[in-house]
Amino acid sequence: MDDIAANLEPHIPGLRRYAWALLRDREAADDLVQDCLEHALAGWHMRRRDGNPKAWLFTILRNLHISELRRRARRGTRVEVEEADSAEAFQEADPERRLIFRDCLSALDTLSEEQKSILLLVGVEDLSYAEMAKALDIPIGTVMSRLSRARERFRQAMETGAAPRLRRVK
Amino acid sequence: MSGPPPMGEDDLNAFIDGRLSSERHALVARFLDEHPELAKRVEADIAAQTALRDSLLFKATEPIPARLRVANLAATRRSAPRYRLQIAAAAALLLMFGGVVGWFAHARLAAPLTAADTPLAAEAMRAHRVFVVETVHPVEVAAAQEAHLVQWLSRRLNHPLKAPDLSAQGFHLMGGRLLPANAGAAAQLMYQNDAGARLTIYLRADGDKETAFQFVQGQNASAFTWTEDGFGYAIAAQADRAQLLRIAESVYQQNKGSGEPKRPPPT
User: Fold this and answer.
1) Which CATH number describes the domain made up of A2-160?
2) What is the interface pTM, i.e. ipTM, of the complex?
3) pLDDT (0 to 100) of residue B92
Protein backbone atom coordinates (compact mmCIF):
# COMPACT_ATOMS: atom_id res chain seq x y z
CA MET A 1 0.00 0.00 0.00
CA ASP A 2 2.86 2.35 0.78
CA ASP A 3 4.15 1.64 -2.67
CA ILE A 4 0.81 2.44 -4.27
CA ALA A 5 0.51 5.62 -2.23
CA ALA A 6 4.01 6.67 -3.27
CA ASN A 7 3.00 6.17 -6.89
CA LEU A 8 -0.37 7.88 -6.72
CA GLU A 9 0.04 10.75 -4.31
CA PRO A 10 2.50 12.86 -6.31
CA HIS A 11 -0.23 13.20 -8.96
CA ILE A 12 -3.04 14.28 -6.65
CA PRO A 13 -2.28 18.02 -6.82
CA GLY A 14 -2.38 17.88 -10.61
CA LEU A 15 -5.56 15.78 -10.63
CA ARG A 16 -7.22 18.29 -8.29
CA ARG A 17 -6.19 21.15 -10.55
CA TYR A 18 -7.49 19.44 -13.70
CA ALA A 19 -10.75 18.47 -12.00
CA TRP A 20 -11.22 21.98 -10.67
CA ALA A 21 -10.53 23.53 -14.08
CA LEU A 22 -13.24 21.29 -15.53
CA LEU A 23 -15.82 21.81 -12.78
CA ARG A 24 -14.94 25.08 -10.94
CA ASP A 25 -16.48 23.75 -7.80
CA ARG A 26 -14.19 22.76 -4.98
CA GLU A 27 -16.26 19.95 -3.52
CA ALA A 28 -17.43 18.54 -6.83
CA ALA A 29 -13.84 18.57 -8.11
CA ASP A 30 -12.56 16.71 -5.06
CA ASP A 31 -15.44 14.23 -5.39
CA LEU A 32 -14.26 13.58 -8.93
CA VAL A 33 -10.65 13.14 -7.79
CA GLN A 34 -11.78 10.80 -5.03
CA ASP A 35 -13.78 8.78 -7.51
CA CYS A 36 -10.75 8.64 -9.79
CA LEU A 37 -8.46 7.49 -6.96
CA GLU A 38 -10.95 4.84 -5.88
CA HIS A 39 -11.04 3.51 -9.43
CA ALA A 40 -7.26 3.64 -9.58
CA LEU A 41 -6.94 1.66 -6.34
CA ALA A 42 -9.45 -0.90 -7.52
CA GLY A 43 -7.71 -1.29 -10.86
CA TRP A 44 -4.15 -0.81 -9.70
CA HIS A 45 -3.06 -4.31 -10.62
CA MET A 46 -4.63 -4.11 -14.03
CA ARG A 47 -2.84 -0.97 -15.12
CA ARG A 48 -0.27 -1.07 -17.87
CA ARG A 49 3.11 -1.59 -16.30
CA ASP A 50 4.94 0.98 -18.34
CA GLY A 51 6.20 2.97 -15.41
CA ASN A 52 4.51 6.28 -14.76
CA PRO A 53 0.81 6.02 -13.87
CA LYS A 54 0.27 9.74 -14.57
CA ALA A 55 -1.39 9.48 -17.96
CA TRP A 56 -3.43 6.52 -16.72
CA LEU A 57 -4.77 8.55 -13.77
CA PHE A 58 -5.70 11.57 -15.87
CA THR A 59 -7.41 9.29 -18.35
CA ILE A 60 -9.50 7.70 -15.58
CA LEU A 61 -10.48 11.11 -14.27
CA ARG A 62 -11.43 12.37 -17.70
CA ASN A 63 -13.48 9.27 -18.48
CA LEU A 64 -15.38 9.62 -15.22
CA HIS A 65 -16.00 13.27 -16.02
CA ILE A 66 -17.29 12.46 -19.49
CA SER A 67 -19.65 9.76 -18.25
CA GLU A 68 -20.99 12.18 -15.66
CA LEU A 69 -21.55 14.76 -18.42
CA ARG A 70 -23.41 12.14 -20.44
CA ARG A 71 -25.53 11.13 -17.47
CA ARG A 72 -26.41 14.74 -16.92
CA ALA A 73 -27.22 15.29 -20.57
CA ARG A 74 -29.57 12.29 -20.49
CA ARG A 75 -31.31 13.63 -17.42
CA GLY A 76 -31.31 17.07 -18.94
CA THR A 77 -29.92 18.71 -15.82
CA ARG A 78 -27.90 21.80 -16.09
CA VAL A 79 -25.59 22.93 -13.41
CA GLU A 80 -24.95 26.59 -13.07
CA VAL A 81 -21.37 27.24 -12.20
CA GLU A 82 -21.00 29.31 -9.09
CA GLU A 83 -19.12 32.40 -10.14
CA ALA A 84 -18.47 33.13 -6.49
CA ASP A 85 -16.71 29.83 -5.96
CA SER A 86 -14.26 30.53 -8.77
CA ALA A 87 -13.56 34.04 -7.61
CA GLU A 88 -13.24 33.02 -4.01
CA ALA A 89 -10.94 30.15 -4.87
CA PHE A 90 -8.39 32.49 -6.33
CA GLN A 91 -6.88 34.23 -3.34
CA GLU A 92 -5.12 36.99 -5.19
CA ALA A 93 -5.07 40.61 -4.16
CA ASP A 94 -3.68 42.00 -7.41
CA PRO A 95 -6.71 43.13 -9.47
CA GLU A 96 -4.74 42.76 -12.70
CA ARG A 97 -4.09 39.09 -11.98
CA ARG A 98 -7.67 38.52 -10.87
CA LEU A 99 -8.75 39.84 -14.24
CA ILE A 100 -6.39 37.49 -16.07
CA PHE A 101 -7.70 34.64 -13.95
CA ARG A 102 -11.28 35.44 -14.92
CA ASP A 103 -10.38 35.83 -18.57
CA CYS A 104 -8.62 32.47 -18.56
CA LEU A 105 -11.59 30.67 -17.09
CA SER A 106 -14.02 32.37 -19.44
CA ALA A 107 -11.81 31.55 -22.40
CA LEU A 108 -11.63 27.94 -21.27
CA ASP A 109 -15.42 27.85 -21.26
CA THR A 110 -15.55 28.61 -24.96
CA LEU A 111 -13.82 25.30 -25.71
CA SER A 112 -15.37 21.89 -26.17
CA GLU A 113 -14.65 19.30 -23.48
CA GLU A 114 -12.04 17.65 -25.67
CA GLN A 115 -10.30 20.90 -26.50
CA LYS A 116 -10.35 21.87 -22.84
CA SER A 117 -8.80 18.57 -21.85
CA ILE A 118 -6.11 18.73 -24.50
CA LEU A 119 -5.17 22.26 -23.51
CA LEU A 120 -5.16 21.48 -19.79
CA LEU A 121 -3.42 18.13 -19.98
CA VAL A 122 -0.69 19.20 -22.40
CA GLY A 123 -0.34 22.85 -21.46
CA VAL A 124 -0.80 22.69 -17.71
CA GLU A 125 -0.31 19.09 -16.59
CA ASP A 126 2.57 18.48 -19.02
CA LEU A 127 1.38 15.19 -20.45
CA SER A 128 3.52 14.23 -23.42
CA TYR A 129 1.97 14.16 -26.89
CA ALA A 130 2.32 10.38 -26.87
CA GLU A 131 0.52 10.12 -23.52
CA MET A 132 -2.17 12.43 -24.82
CA ALA A 133 -2.64 10.23 -27.87
CA LYS A 134 -3.06 7.22 -25.59
CA ALA A 135 -5.46 9.05 -23.30
CA LEU A 136 -7.69 10.18 -26.18
CA ASP A 137 -7.11 7.01 -28.17
CA ILE A 138 -6.21 8.94 -31.32
CA PRO A 139 -3.02 9.13 -33.39
CA ILE A 140 -0.35 11.69 -32.42
CA GLY A 141 -0.91 13.63 -35.62
CA THR A 142 -4.54 14.11 -34.65
CA VAL A 143 -3.48 15.25 -31.17
CA MET A 144 -1.32 17.88 -32.85
CA SER A 145 -4.03 19.31 -35.05
CA ARG A 146 -6.60 19.28 -32.24
CA LEU A 147 -4.11 20.95 -29.93
CA SER A 148 -3.51 23.66 -32.53
CA ARG A 149 -7.25 24.25 -32.89
CA ALA A 150 -7.75 24.36 -29.11
CA ARG A 151 -4.92 26.88 -28.82
CA GLU A 152 -6.32 29.01 -31.58
CA ARG A 153 -9.75 29.16 -30.00
CA PHE A 154 -8.36 29.80 -26.53
CA ARG A 155 -6.08 32.56 -27.80
CA GLN A 156 -8.89 34.26 -29.66
CA ALA A 157 -11.14 34.13 -26.61
CA MET A 158 -8.35 35.60 -24.51
CA GLU A 159 -7.74 38.35 -27.06
CA THR A 160 -11.34 39.41 -27.44
CA GLY A 161 -11.96 38.92 -23.74
CA ALA A 162 -15.64 39.05 -24.61
CA ALA A 163 -16.65 35.76 -23.10
CA PRO A 164 -20.21 35.32 -21.96
CA ARG A 165 -20.70 35.85 -18.23
CA LEU A 166 -23.31 33.17 -17.82
CA ARG A 167 -22.17 29.73 -18.60
CA ARG A 168 -23.07 26.18 -17.90
CA VAL A 169 -21.21 22.95 -17.51
CA LYS A 170 -21.73 21.15 -20.76
CA MET B 1 21.83 14.05 -46.93
CA SER B 2 19.13 16.65 -47.29
CA GLY B 3 18.52 19.51 -44.86
CA PRO B 4 16.42 19.39 -41.68
CA PRO B 5 12.73 18.48 -42.07
CA PRO B 6 10.49 21.44 -42.95
CA MET B 7 8.54 23.30 -40.29
CA GLY B 8 5.29 21.69 -39.17
CA GLU B 9 2.41 22.08 -36.80
CA ASP B 10 4.12 19.67 -34.41
CA ASP B 11 7.18 21.93 -34.33
CA LEU B 12 5.11 24.95 -33.46
CA ASN B 13 3.23 23.11 -30.72
CA ALA B 14 6.41 21.70 -29.27
CA PHE B 15 7.97 25.17 -29.48
CA ILE B 16 5.09 26.62 -27.46
CA ASP B 17 5.34 23.76 -24.96
CA GLY B 18 9.12 24.04 -24.74
CA ARG B 19 9.63 20.45 -25.81
CA LEU B 20 12.06 20.84 -28.71
CA SER B 21 15.71 19.92 -28.69
CA SER B 22 17.86 23.03 -28.55
CA GLU B 23 18.87 22.59 -32.19
CA ARG B 24 15.33 22.31 -33.42
CA HIS B 25 14.25 25.12 -31.12
CA ALA B 26 16.82 27.45 -32.67
CA LEU B 27 15.64 26.41 -36.11
CA VAL B 28 12.00 27.20 -35.31
CA ALA B 29 13.00 30.50 -33.70
CA ARG B 30 14.83 31.48 -36.88
CA PHE B 31 11.84 30.46 -38.97
CA LEU B 32 9.57 32.61 -36.82
CA ASP B 33 11.92 35.58 -37.24
CA GLU B 34 11.25 35.35 -40.94
CA HIS B 35 7.49 35.04 -40.45
CA PRO B 36 6.45 37.85 -38.10
CA GLU B 37 2.74 37.21 -38.56
CA LEU B 38 3.10 33.62 -37.34
CA ALA B 39 5.57 34.71 -34.66
CA LYS B 40 2.96 37.03 -33.20
CA ARG B 41 0.46 34.19 -33.01
CA VAL B 42 2.94 31.84 -31.38
CA GLU B 43 3.86 34.53 -28.88
CA ALA B 44 0.20 35.05 -28.02
CA ASP B 45 -0.23 31.30 -27.60
CA ILE B 46 2.69 31.19 -25.20
CA ALA B 47 1.30 34.14 -23.25
CA ALA B 48 -2.16 32.56 -23.06
CA GLN B 49 -0.74 29.26 -21.89
CA THR B 50 1.41 30.97 -19.27
CA ALA B 51 -1.61 32.89 -18.01
CA LEU B 52 -3.61 29.67 -17.77
CA ARG B 53 -0.84 27.91 -15.87
CA ASP B 54 -0.41 30.84 -13.48
CA SER B 55 -4.12 31.06 -12.89
CA LEU B 56 -4.49 27.40 -12.01
CA LEU B 57 -1.29 27.06 -10.00
CA PHE B 58 -3.02 27.84 -6.71
CA LYS B 59 -5.01 24.64 -6.96
CA ALA B 60 -1.96 22.42 -7.25
CA THR B 61 -0.22 24.04 -4.30
CA GLU B 62 -3.11 23.58 -1.89
CA PRO B 63 -2.66 20.95 0.82
CA ILE B 64 -4.36 17.70 -0.16
CA PRO B 65 -7.60 17.14 1.77
CA ALA B 66 -7.48 14.17 4.14
CA ARG B 67 -10.22 12.37 2.27
CA LEU B 68 -8.02 12.15 -0.81
CA ARG B 69 -5.12 10.51 1.00
CA VAL B 70 -4.47 7.11 -0.49
CA ALA B 71 -4.11 5.46 2.93
CA ASN B 72 -7.51 6.80 3.96
CA LEU B 73 -9.13 5.75 0.72
CA ALA B 74 -7.65 2.29 0.95
CA ALA B 75 -8.77 1.93 4.57
CA THR B 76 -12.37 2.71 3.74
CA ARG B 77 -12.48 1.10 0.33
CA ARG B 78 -13.83 -2.31 1.23
CA SER B 79 -16.98 -1.32 3.06
CA ALA B 80 -17.34 2.29 2.01
CA PRO B 81 -20.78 3.55 1.12
CA ARG B 82 -20.89 6.01 -1.73
CA TYR B 83 -19.16 9.18 -0.74
CA ARG B 84 -22.05 11.39 -1.70
CA LEU B 85 -24.00 9.71 1.06
CA GLN B 86 -21.10 10.23 3.40
CA ILE B 87 -21.06 13.92 2.67
CA ALA B 88 -24.77 14.18 3.33
CA ALA B 89 -24.32 12.25 6.56
CA ALA B 90 -21.42 14.44 7.61
CA ALA B 91 -23.42 17.57 6.91
CA ALA B 92 -26.37 16.26 8.92
CA LEU B 93 -24.02 15.30 11.70
CA LEU B 94 -22.39 18.69 11.75
CA LEU B 95 -25.76 20.31 12.25
CA MET B 96 -26.58 18.08 15.19
CA PHE B 97 -23.07 18.31 16.49
CA GLY B 98 -23.01 22.10 16.50
CA GLY B 99 -26.02 22.01 18.77
CA VAL B 100 -24.50 19.48 21.11
CA VAL B 101 -21.19 21.28 21.38
CA GLY B 102 -22.88 24.61 21.84
CA TRP B 103 -25.00 23.21 24.63
CA PHE B 104 -22.03 21.64 26.38
CA ALA B 105 -19.79 24.64 25.91
CA HIS B 106 -22.49 26.64 27.60
CA ALA B 107 -23.01 24.09 30.36
CA ARG B 108 -19.33 23.97 31.12
CA LEU B 109 -18.81 27.67 31.04
CA ALA B 110 -19.51 28.17 34.73
CA ALA B 111 -17.10 25.57 36.03
CA PRO B 112 -14.22 24.62 33.74
CA LEU B 113 -12.86 21.13 34.23
CA THR B 114 -9.32 20.64 35.39
CA ALA B 115 -6.89 18.03 34.20
CA ALA B 116 -7.53 15.93 37.29
CA ASP B 117 -11.12 15.37 36.17
CA THR B 118 -10.15 13.62 33.01
CA PRO B 119 -7.10 11.36 32.67
CA LEU B 120 -7.25 11.51 28.89
CA ALA B 121 -6.79 15.26 28.89
CA ALA B 122 -4.07 15.05 31.52
CA GLU B 123 -2.07 12.57 29.45
CA ALA B 124 -2.61 14.56 26.28
CA MET B 125 -1.44 17.79 27.86
CA ARG B 126 1.55 16.10 29.47
CA ALA B 127 2.60 14.66 26.09
CA HIS B 128 1.85 18.01 24.48
CA ARG B 129 4.13 19.88 26.90
CA VAL B 130 6.99 17.43 26.42
CA PHE B 131 7.03 17.36 22.66
CA VAL B 132 5.89 20.77 21.38
CA VAL B 133 9.05 22.40 22.69
CA GLU B 134 11.18 19.88 20.81
CA THR B 135 13.00 21.48 17.90
CA VAL B 136 15.25 18.67 16.70
CA HIS B 137 12.89 15.69 16.91
CA PRO B 138 9.35 16.98 17.38
CA VAL B 139 7.99 13.90 15.66
CA GLU B 140 9.09 10.33 15.13
CA VAL B 141 7.71 10.00 11.62
CA ALA B 142 7.41 13.15 9.55
CA ALA B 143 4.40 14.22 7.51
CA ALA B 144 6.31 13.51 4.31
CA GLN B 145 5.58 9.85 5.07
CA GLU B 146 2.02 10.45 6.10
CA ALA B 147 0.64 7.27 4.58
CA HIS B 148 3.22 5.22 6.45
CA LEU B 149 2.65 7.17 9.65
CA VAL B 150 -1.09 6.65 9.59
CA GLN B 151 -0.79 2.99 8.76
CA TRP B 152 1.81 2.37 11.43
CA LEU B 153 -0.09 4.14 14.20
CA SER B 154 -3.35 2.50 13.14
CA ARG B 155 -1.73 -0.87 13.47
CA ARG B 156 -0.12 -0.18 16.82
CA LEU B 157 -3.32 1.25 18.26
CA ASN B 158 -5.39 -1.41 16.59
CA HIS B 159 -7.77 1.29 15.41
CA PRO B 160 -8.08 2.90 11.99
CA LEU B 161 -6.72 6.42 12.35
CA LYS B 162 -6.41 9.27 9.98
CA ALA B 163 -4.51 12.49 10.15
CA PRO B 164 -7.17 15.20 9.95
CA ASP B 165 -6.61 18.01 7.49
CA LEU B 166 -6.49 21.23 9.50
CA SER B 167 -5.37 23.50 6.71
CA ALA B 168 -8.62 25.44 6.97
CA GLN B 169 -7.52 26.36 10.49
CA GLY B 170 -4.04 27.22 9.26
CA PHE B 171 -2.31 24.14 10.68
CA HIS B 172 -0.38 21.59 8.70
CA LEU B 173 0.69 18.12 9.81
CA MET B 174 4.29 17.82 11.01
CA GLY B 175 4.11 14.13 11.78
CA GLY B 176 3.47 11.88 14.71
CA ARG B 177 4.79 9.49 17.30
CA LEU B 178 3.86 6.48 19.33
CA LEU B 179 3.64 6.87 23.12
CA PRO B 180 3.09 4.53 26.04
CA ALA B 181 -0.29 4.83 27.71
CA ASN B 182 -1.86 3.07 30.68
CA ALA B 183 -3.70 0.45 28.71
CA GLY B 184 -1.27 0.11 25.84
CA ALA B 185 -0.20 2.58 23.23
CA ALA B 186 -1.21 6.12 22.39
CA ALA B 187 -0.51 8.17 19.29
CA GLN B 188 0.32 11.83 19.04
CA LEU B 189 -0.05 13.82 15.85
CA MET B 190 1.58 17.22 15.77
CA TYR B 191 0.52 20.19 13.67
CA GLN B 192 2.05 23.62 13.22
CA ASN B 193 0.81 26.87 11.73
CA ASP B 194 2.77 29.48 9.84
CA ALA B 195 3.34 31.43 13.04
CA GLY B 196 5.07 28.39 14.54
CA ALA B 197 2.26 27.59 16.99
CA ARG B 198 1.83 23.86 17.53
CA LEU B 199 -1.10 21.71 18.48
CA THR B 200 -1.26 18.00 19.14
CA ILE B 201 -3.94 15.38 18.73
CA TYR B 202 -3.67 12.57 21.26
CA LEU B 203 -5.41 9.28 20.61
CA ARG B 204 -5.80 6.09 22.56
CA ALA B 205 -8.30 3.38 23.47
CA ASP B 206 -10.55 4.59 26.26
CA GLY B 207 -12.56 1.64 27.58
CA ASP B 208 -16.13 1.29 26.44
CA LYS B 209 -16.94 4.83 27.26
CA GLU B 210 -18.74 7.45 25.29
CA THR B 211 -18.30 11.00 26.43
CA ALA B 212 -19.29 14.31 24.96
CA PHE B 213 -16.92 17.19 24.29
CA GLN B 214 -15.08 18.43 27.34
CA PHE B 215 -12.92 21.49 27.58
CA VAL B 216 -10.06 21.22 30.04
CA GLN B 217 -7.88 24.15 31.02
CA GLY B 218 -4.37 23.16 32.08
CA GLN B 219 -1.50 25.35 33.20
CA ASN B 220 0.35 25.71 29.93
CA ALA B 221 -2.16 24.26 27.56
CA SER B 222 -5.80 23.53 27.18
CA ALA B 223 -7.51 20.56 25.62
CA PHE B 224 -10.77 19.41 24.14
CA THR B 225 -11.44 15.73 24.68
CA TRP B 226 -14.13 13.28 23.74
CA THR B 227 -14.52 9.53 23.56
CA GLU B 228 -16.33 7.77 20.81
CA ASP B 229 -16.88 4.03 20.49
CA GLY B 230 -14.29 3.39 23.16
CA PHE B 231 -11.66 5.53 21.48
CA GLY B 232 -10.45 8.73 23.09
CA TYR B 233 -9.45 11.94 21.33
CA ALA B 234 -7.76 14.94 22.88
CA ILE B 235 -6.77 18.11 21.05
CA ALA B 236 -4.19 20.06 23.03
CA ALA B 237 -2.77 23.49 22.30
CA GLN B 238 -1.97 26.82 23.80
CA ALA B 239 -5.14 28.30 22.49
CA ASP B 240 -8.34 29.75 23.82
CA ARG B 241 -11.52 27.77 23.97
CA ALA B 242 -13.11 29.21 20.86
CA GLN B 243 -10.06 28.54 18.73
CA LEU B 244 -9.63 25.05 20.07
CA LEU B 245 -13.31 24.28 19.64
CA ARG B 246 -13.15 25.09 15.93
CA ILE B 247 -10.23 22.72 15.54
CA ALA B 248 -11.87 20.01 17.63
CA GLU B 249 -15.04 20.29 15.57
CA SER B 250 -13.08 19.90 12.40
CA VAL B 251 -11.26 16.82 13.72
CA TYR B 252 -14.50 15.33 14.95
CA GLN B 253 -16.24 15.94 11.66
CA GLN B 254 -13.40 14.49 9.61
CA ASN B 255 -13.26 11.41 11.80
CA LYS B 256 -16.93 10.83 11.30
CA GLY B 257 -16.81 11.63 7.61
CA SER B 258 -16.25 8.03 6.69
CA GLY B 259 -18.28 6.30 9.36
CA GLU B 260 -21.85 6.05 10.58
CA PRO B 261 -23.19 9.35 11.83
CA LYS B 262 -23.66 9.11 15.53
CA ARG B 263 -24.36 11.73 18.08
CA PRO B 264 -22.03 11.81 21.08
CA PRO B 265 -24.30 11.07 24.02
CA PRO B 266 -24.26 13.50 26.92
CA THR B 267 -22.53 12.30 30.07
Assistant:
1) 1.20.140.160
2) 0.88
3) 61
